[in-house]
Amino acid sequence: MKNDSVINRKATEFALRIIKAYQFLTTEKNEYVMSKQLLRSGTAIGALIREVEFAESKNDFAHKLRIALKEANETDYWLLLLSESNYIEKTAYDSIQSDCIELIKLLVSIIKTAKSNS
User: Highest taxon of the source (predicted)?
Assistant: First the structure.
């Protein structure tokens, strides 16, 4: 998977949004627990997608993408908790959560394609 692929670009842009959200949550809201989890899982998605470029096999390729999918799902959970506990406003939640769902859909599609090609 090339560094300039759609999913790679979207994952990088998403990670940057997550970093900004983390900075906001820690400096403006003094929230450190959920925001740290959000930072970890939200930035892991892109890192795992980048690792796919050097997958050792088709199974390794699919495995790394499945882990990225799990991280995206976990990120969606932390975003929901932060929204429901009023740490982030609904409009901000809707926007970043939409990006997260888009990544999830892309990952599911790539995983399905990889599975059918093996």
Answer: Bacteria
